[in-house]
Design a protein that fits this description.
Layout lengths: L7 E6 L2 E6 L3 E2 L2 H15 L6 E5 L5 E2 L1 H16 L3 E5 L3 H9 L2 H4 L1 E3 L2 H7 L1
Parallel strand pairs: 2-4, 3-5, 4-6, 6-7
Antiparallel strand pairs: 1-2
Helix pairs in contact: 1-2
Length: about 120
Amino acid sequence: MTEKQSHISVEESGDVRVVHFAVRKILEELAIADIGEELTQVIADKKGVKLLLSFQDVEHLSSAALSMLISLNRQVDELDGDLRMADIAPPIYEVFKITRLNKLFKIHGTTQEALAEF
């Protein structure tokens, strides 16, 4: 049996879990489902989790990926946690603005700025 390749990497910065995406295009349904599962494992039962998603290497994001992020935000809220996003490319940020998700998510210009706000 082959092991699935991870779509994310996670590092700890103090008490914040920083997630970096290993894929440039988050478009395919199967990959999005896998990413959603991986992110759920990162926060699983972690009351008060502090999670930062860095989109530094992401070039494209589908609407299904946005839906997965909304679901993740709900899960973090249920854990009384804090979800922030950073390093979003201007074209992707435009999508967040058009869909008004920039009002739902806490979005920062850089990872360092986001870390400073936790």
